[in-house]
Amino acid sequence: MPNSEAIYIEKLRNSGLRPTKQRIRICEVLFNREKTFHFSINELMKIIQTKNNQKISLATVYNTIHTLKKKGHLKEINVGNDMSYFDTNTHSHHHFYDNQTKELVDINSDEVQIKKNPVPPNGKKIMDIEVTFKISKE
């Protein structure tokens, strides 16, 4: 297995970011997992502050996340009310979003069927479809 830190350094450099200790720590929290990781910036800050003894500024976290997103290493899912989550699974897939627990959960794409697509505006084409189902207790 390749050295994880070397992979993170490569991701950061490919994104145009200098691989500082803080940015490498952010990548460790994001990508050193077996399962997909869904998070908000605030949740990520709490995890980083709990896991690491070093301080990482909100600006560094915010800028690193948005740069990794722009380069395709993360996906942003807007759940409404100016709230966004980020996802380490950048492949096309659907989600459940629980309004009470604020949890975002993957749905296997085979479990969602879309029978009819809208006609896009002139000169545009549908590139992808991702659905977020907002759920709550009955």
Provide the CATH superfamily. Answer: Winged helix-like DNA-binding domain superfamily/Winged helix DNA-binding domain
Overall morphology: globular
The CATH architecture designation is Orthogonal Bundle
Spatial order of the strands forming the largest sheet: 1-3-2
- Overall domain count: 1
- CATH topology heading: Arc Repressor Mutant, subunit A
Structural class based on helices, strands and sheet pairing: alpha+beta
Count of helical stretches: 4
Q: Number of DSSP strands?
A: 6
Q: Over all CA atoms, what is the radius of gyration?
A: 17 Å
User: Residue ranges: pLDDT <50 for 5 or more in a row?
Assistant: none
Distance between the termini: 46 Å
Which whole number gives the mean pLDDT? 91
Largest sheet: 3 strands, antiparallel
Order of helices and strands: HHEHHEEEEE
